[in-house]
Amino acid sequence: MKVLLTVVLMLLALTAPARADYTLIVPQEPGGGTSIWATVVASELEKKLGERVIIRHIPGARDQIGFDKFHNRLRFDEKTIMVSHGGNAVSFLQEKVDYNYADYSPVAIMNNNIIVSRREDLDWREEKIIFPERSGTVPESMALALLVGGPDAWDNWSQRVVYVKRMDTPECRMAFRRGEINVTRENPAAHKKHVEPVPGAVPFFHHGLFDPESGKFDRDPNFPEVPTLEELYSETWGAYPEGRLYEAYKMVKAWRDGVQKALWVNRGNPDLERLRSAVRAMLDDPEAMERIHAKLGSYPWHVGGEAENYMNALYPLITEEAMETLVEFNRDALNLDSFYNEKLIYRKDE
Amino acid sequence: MTEFLFLIAGVIYGLIVGVIPVAGATTGLIALYPFMSYFAPHPYLGVIFCVAAVASSTTGDTFSGILLGIPGANSAAATMVDGFPLAVRGKASYALSAALTVSTINGLLWGSLTFFLMPFYARLILILGIPEMLGLTVLAFATVVFLSTRYWVRSVLALLAGIFIGLIGYNVNASPRWTFGWDYLLDGVQLIPVVVGLFAVPELIHGLSARAKTAVHENRRHGEQTLEGIKSAFSNWKLSLSGGIIGSVIGILPGIGGAMADWLAYGNAVATNPGEEFGKGNIKGVIGCEGANNAQKASSFIPTVLFGIPGAPFAAVLMSLFMYLNFEMGTMEVINDQRFLSSLTYSFMWGTLITGAVCIFLSRYVSYLAYVPYKYYFPVLLGLVTWASMQYTGGWEDLAIMLIMSVIGVAARRFKFSRPSMLIGFILAARIEKLLWQTFTIYRPLTLLTRPIFIFFVLLIFLVVTAGIRNRSRLEYS
Q1: pLDDT > 70: what percent of chain B?
Q2: Within-domain flag for A349
Q3: B positions 278-297 inside 8 Å of A (CB)
Q4: What is the DSSP string of B363-403?
Q5: Is residue B213 over pLDDT 60?
Q6: Shortest distance, CA A139 to any CA of chain B (angstroms)
């Protein structure tokens, strides 16, 4: 009995540091963009928290399995933090997933933007646009339909945009270089590395940065010369975009780029404030931020109450019409099966 | 000196993962993720270690293909078709030394051409578009189906079965396809359990049930066989070189992968020696595909470094490992970083050379594996391939897939349904689906007729199919 007790105590002593660690759940395999971001953030947080922060990869099902596991089981552990990316937000809006952002508190949210580029020789007002689409690129697909279709976009887009299915990011880069597709998209850091050096590539537009106060999308200070979709649309069609397709576009882009990278814990987690303080300390550390900016560009972070306010500004964008349009657009334009999740519809009185 | 130590460490690590059946370069690199932070203060040493591991694992995986009849990685599957029968006949050292010589020479040759002339390849990559990739992929299917076995109808069925398994996961509309409600399958069936099930387990079971040695011990001395093997590598230099050319072209094309290179090179060996028997221990079968092996690995670095587009599965993993070291492939920073480029060159070239020399020397001892009764190493090998299969989730699901694939593999072996055809169908299923979608969305059928390289591939496919049906391959490998 004594031996057994000693062994148990020794095992407990040996595993004590492991139990004290924070675990970041990354819903990807090692090496993905979010995984690398999480690695940088984890190493900085470790210094601020004074505790080990380890990464656990739970890949699968286009990055949904890890988030679903966090929702169903792992979030109840106080030391577990979820790392999500923009693709998770798109899946949240249009697919059957278990996770629900309303059930978690944001530790911090990092915004981002997507830059859409085209071949210089493309006369996009006349010629067909050839663009690679995937479920994560729904905002760009909608933006192109809006741009070429104008006020009657819903009826016009199909004549002018060809959506190429099943092209992953490396294939897109090659096909764009070869001119097989004439429009492509990248996040800002990748845009600088993979699009700017391509001869004959010019920026087309970007989605802008969502301002939770005004509900509008501002120009990106990282790309001051590139217009937002709204600006390019207004210049082309003489009016600000509106209508059901635009409402759906606004919703998807704000969600995807707004919560492009985010850290979550379960609501009521007692460590929340401590974690938020650590993130604030990281944001105040210029060396740490230089490393993070090098990966994804310099974009706003929202921590604590600011992050809660940001999320609160996103929910009202989920309207019945926007959700219906999203499902219809996915089905008719992109041939994607998506799910109309009535429970997500924002109702003011709830 | 520090660089040299890391080079040697990389070579040793690569050899170990290369020799482990079905592990190979990709698995070996995946296992390095947790350790990359140790290289952060010295990123160039990390580059040297990883690239040396790639170079040596490519050469090292020849051992398990020839000695055990189990591919070291999916890219070494073609080597075993003629290499294993040679080992069984007591000519393990002969087959190994020929394979290692060809592999090393092609690694050095194509490594030099790759690293010293890297910027000049950019144009070549841009000439070959989506339709040409489609043509090349179908050509690989045709080559394997008609050249890997004489039972071509069964081979076609095996290919279709492989494609079916390879398409499990999400369909083009982002809906689950053939997952039977099992979430584990949403990301598709993983490669390693398939290779283990199709090749490793059936060979292990066969060896155990036959209660035999793997190979017959021939009285001729090891040194004599080794010399003979090296000589045959040089006397068949044309075959070796053409294998290297095939491998290097496939390596340049992003996403096509090593399995195709080996089989096309094997097909070339069979086609250029019409009067000879293959599949029963013809050294030309070994030399043909080993020429492609290292050449493909070397030239895979071209799209990877120049454009940040992985030329093969191992290159995708390598690229993300380099991200941890702050080297982002395809960027001007990396292309202009002379120290990075020379680290790549240094580690690949020296890694290949050292591995070649060490392996030829070691082959004397390692080849004794071929004479050890199965009952002794059956549990060790089974443990290793099971470990390799469980690198995806580490859960029971990985084991279940391995078991299911083992049943399929044993049945395919017994009833002569080509396992190489099934494997290549599995590996390239998602790619062929993508390429079909992309080609017929972007191009109209008539515009395809204006692309000479595409037409060339179509004609080649026609020739391979016609010749395959008319003059049946003599191979009985399944």
Answers
A1: 87
A2: no
A3: none
A4: HHHHGGGGGSBHHHHHHHHHHHHHHHHTTSS-SHHHHHHHH
A5: no
A6: 16
